[in-house]
Amino acid sequence: MARKGERRLVIVSNRLPVVMEHNDTGWFVRPSSGGLVTALAPVLRDRGGIWIGWPGTSSEIDLTEPLAIGTRTAGYSLKPVSLTPQEVQNFYFGFANEVIWPLFHDLQGSCNFDPDYWATYQEVNFKYAEVTAETAGKGDYIWVHDYHLMCLGRALRQLGVNSLIGFFLHIPFPPLDIFLKLPWRFQILRALLEFDLIGLQTLRDYRNFLQCIRAVIKDVRVQLNGRIATIRFGERGLRVGAFPISIDYKAFAREAVSEEVTERSRHIHEELPKRHIVLGVDRLDYTKGIPHKLDAFRRLLTQHPELREQITLVQVVVPSRETIPKYQDLKMEIERMVGEINGLFTVWGWAPIIYIFRSLDRDELIAYYRASEIALVTPLKDGMNLVSKEFCASSVEEECVLILSEFAGAAAQLQNGALLVNPYDTELVADAIHRAFSMNRVDRKYRMHKLRKKIRENDVFHWVDSFLKAAIGRDLHEFPPLEDYLPQVELDAVSYRGETAAQDFLQGAS
């Protein structure tokens, strides 16, 4: 636990950084593998901080013991927020993933603007605010993450929390003409103005946000100062900036040369001898452009028959939201295309696509990164995309090529070393794969060396430092590791502080 008088980082996100699983002996936890966890876990570890979020289970289940064990393993305290099944349905599957997720990825045709979703979204944000208010100390810095909790700052102010509160949006922020389609555009922007610092992934997102603020909120004043803007609204003042998220570069590079990863990587190549491995690693989601990628690979094999039996696409799809019909349909479409392409081109001893539908453990993932000559990262739109950075950090021989969608946030940082493509242009993507396959060793090493240097200099600790310097004028050293860290977690039932505050919050947002 934190020493008296020390400032702590309090992270608040939709989910805790662990996955709850059940077997014959009861409930247990394992680390989550999401991008947010990959970025923040090494930062928060052993600093006496707190992570607040939903554990992913029913509120009736007693998670005291497994979360206490998870706390000791993680190196920071885990504080759960209880949600009912109906709240999960309307808040997470509803508003977050049927409204904000498609809209902010420029896919407004997939939105379902159900008013019940909006009502539950506000109620759940208030519930997170109550847990945060009860947990955070006066000197702690509260850092809220992502689109699920855009109203949390306003709810915390309603509860009388005067601490500094930061917010970071991990997905893109849409341009004005798309954002205006949101029925609750004013309420969302007004709630965001209650944070003290808003961080976005890229300068494009930063400009889009400021344009929306100017158009939607009356009497707002924006003062630009380089990559940081100051917004004045009534008596409130806050800052907005672009802070591209990253990874723990040294950890990936170190694990890539470990004995276990090296051995796994060697086995992968033994199974695919004398072949270029093209690697795709994507979560099951319609924004990742997996069918477009498969179509591009089909075009490659059709237009360049000489590459058959010399190249193999290893496509890893990480399961996600499989209970949602749209995601079930996407999975079926991917599997249909993989079967069709393999049926067209497979010969004895060679299949063009190896399809893996499961999560990979960290060592296995890094082994695939290291074994692959080409990474094909082609989302239709992405806030950042950390797979591209993980691939480069793990490519210690530097004899590989990154093909990257120009619509990924990472493209702004990696454009000088990657081959940038429009994922909708499948012929262009096929040409890029052919170019990567044909690229000589010197060019590959030159490009990958530049990419790795860029990521090394702008790793996750640089991201946190840049955000905290803008937030509190200090960097991560303000939260030093604790020498005798003995994490403790309070797991008392979450209850409302009072109906009055809740009603004030909901009425003010309507």
UniProtKB/TrEMBL annotation:
Keyword annotations from UniProtKB, A to Z: Glycosyltransferase, Transferase
Gene3D superfamilies the record matches: Glycogen Phosphorylase B
Top EC group: transferase
Catalytic activity from the UniProt record: ADP-alpha-D-glucose + sn-glycerol 3-phosphate = 2-O-(alpha-D-glucopyranosyl)-sn-glycerol 3-phosphate + ADP + H(+)
MF terms in GO: alpha,alpha-trehalose-phosphate synthase (UDP-forming) activity; glucosylglycerol-phosphate synthase activity; trehalose-phosphatase activity
Protein name: Glucosylglycerol-phosphate synthase
GO biological process, alphabetically ordered: trehalose biosynthetic process
Coiled-coil annotated spans: none
CDD domains to which the protein is assigned, alphabetical: GT20_TPS (cd03788)
Transmembrane segments: none
EC number of the protein: 2.4.1.213
Listed Pfam families: Glyco_transf_20
PANTHER family: BCDNA.GH08860, TREHALOSE-6-PHOSPHATE SYNTHASE
Taxonomy, superkingdom: Bacteria
Function of the protein: Involved in salt tolerance by producing GG-phosphate from ADP-glucose and glycerol-3-phosphate (G3P), an intermediate in the synthesis of the osmolyte glucosylglycerol (GG).
GO cellular component assignments: cytosol
Keyword Glycosyltransferase belongs to the record: yes
Organism annotation: Desulfomonile tiedjei
Pathway: Glycan metabolism; glucosylglycerol biosynthesis
Family: Belongs to the glycosyltransferase 20 family.
